[in-house]
Amino acid sequence: MTTSAPVLPPVDFTARLAGRAQRMTASAIREILKITQEPDVISFAGGLPAPELFPLEDVRRATDTVLTRYGPAALQYSTTEGHLPLREWIAARAGITPAHVQIVTGSQQGLDLLGKILIDEGDVVLVEAPTYLGALQSFQPYGPRYVELPTDEHGIDTDALEEVLQSQPAKLLYAVPNFQNPTGRTLSLERRRRLLELTAQYGVLVLEDDPYGKLRFTGEDLPSLYELGLERAGGDPERSHVIYSSSFSKTLVPGLRDAWVQAARPLIEKLVQAKQGADLHTPTLNQMIVAELVQDVLPRQIETVKRAYGERARDMVARIQEHFPPEVSFTTPEGGMFLWVTVPEGLDTVPLLAQAVARKVAFVPGSPFYALGGGANTMRLSYSSATPEQIGTGIRALGETIRAAMD
């Protein structure tokens, strides 16, 4: 005689999630990219490096060299801090020691780990309006209280920053000073100095996210916040309140997922502990490949990418001027991968996206880039992986979409 198994009630997994998991959200950009995968849709949505520019043969040769030189060690577990020759190269360029450098698995991991070691629930985190969506997604599980800083064509409004700091304490200021994601704007040198003065005065840590800084295709290079902070600290990284994050994803190849954080040693030591709990270390082979490429291939690759992105940005700006209504404004980037479009008040770019996709072109609506909401009439366009033909056809279709929505 057999007896049927009892029917168990469904498990309410959602109720069993930690509070920080409840605060997690899906990346709005990743969700948008799902609807733009049709081959006939021209996508200006994803901030993707141009794959046809990847130094494929150089990576292949570097991989062979690394496997020959290091043998099984290239495939073995390694130290959490990262491959020493790579850390030495990064440190030498920054005027610091390898002890101040932590290799991470992509900048996104660096943001997550920094959020984990720095942000307690309720801490005030200052962010640009708009700001990088991935940073908001990384920090959100740790329960920050965001305060937005207004921005203009010169970056963060430092007068507004001073007013904010006079009214409330803050733990951290997060910024993308160079060719900002999403706007493409660059923080001016005057404002960089003022930002450092104010944050030092009020005891606020500065997290500088700089994945695009080497991709300047017009204008003069500006010193990073980290460089200026180190200068203010007399060259002593232990006295600087600036944390610097960068990556090889936008300058070399994204798939190796190699990035790094520069900071004072007490912060690096905590990052090491946090990373040990996350993934032990960034893949050994990947780090060794990057270390093999940084001396000769990376400088050439940066020049190749800068030239291509400069041409594509100029092409997109020209097409926007030709096809968009005069009521639409946009930024003209000096580097990086993005520009920012503002359509007339009253238009919402979220429903506008569906109308654009119907015309076989896609973008990212601007509202997800605002920590506290807003930006309904904005959008981000990426020119980095688009061909001239795609830019011409796509911008024309997007202009038609905007005009139809305005009628």
Detail the topology: elements first, then pairings.
Blueprint: H1 13-16, H2 19-22, H3 28-34, E1 42-43, H4 56-70, H5 84-94, E2 101-105, H6 106-118, E3 124-129, H7 133-139, E4 145-152, E5 155-156, H8 158-167, E6 172-175, H9 189-201, E7 205-209, H10 225-232, E8 242-247, E9 258-262, H11 265-278, H12 284-293, H13 297-323, E10 329-330, E11 338-342, H14 349-358, E12 361-362, E13 364-365, E14 378-382, H15 388-406
Parallel strand pairs: 1-12, 3-4, 3-6, 6-7, 7-8
Antiparallel strand pairs: 2-9, 4-5, 8-9, 10-11, 11-14, 13-14
**Which blocks of ≥5 consecutive residues have pLDDT under 50?**
none
Question: What is the overall silhouette?
Answer: globular
The largest pleated sheet is described as:
8 strands, mixed
Provide the CATH superfamily of the largest domain. Answer: Type I PLP-dependent aspartate aminotransferase-like (Major domain)
Strands side by side in the biggest sheet: 2-9-8-7-6-3-4-5
First-last Cα distance = 75 Å
Order of helices and strands: HHHEHHEHEHEEHEHEHEEHHHEEHEEEH
What does this 3D model show about the protein?
The protein has 407 residues and is of the alpha/beta class. The chain has two domains: 26-47 and 299-406, Aspartate Aminotransferase, domain 1 (Alpha-Beta Complex), CATH 3.90.1150.10; 76-293, Type I PLP-dependent aspartate aminotransferase-like (Major domain) (Aspartate Aminotransferase, domain 2, 3-Layer(aba) Sandwich), CATH 3.40.640.10. The chain is 42% helix and 14% strand. It is built from 15 helices and 14 strands. The chain has helices at residues 13-16, 19-22, 28-34, 56-70, 84-94, 106-118, 133-139, 158-167, 189-201, 225-232, 265-278, 284-293, 297-323, 349-358, 388-406, and strands spanning 42-43, 101-105, 124-129, 145-152, 155-156, 172-175, 205-209, 242-247, 258-262, 329-330, 338-342, 361-362, 364-365, 378-382. The chain has an eight-stranded mixed sheet with strand order 2-9-8-7-6-3-4-5, sandwiched between helices. Strands 10-11-14-13 form a four-stranded antiparallel sheet, covered by helices on one side. Strands 1-12 form a two-stranded parallel sheet. Strand 4 (145-152) and strand 5 form a beta hairpin. The longest helix is centred in the last third of the chain and has 27 residues, at 297-323. It starts with 12 loop residues before the first helix and ends with a helix. Its cofactor is pyridoxal 5'-phosphate. Belongs to the class-I pyridoxal-phosphate-dependent aminotransferase family. Homodimer. Keywords: Aminotransferase, Pyridoxal phosphate, Transferase.
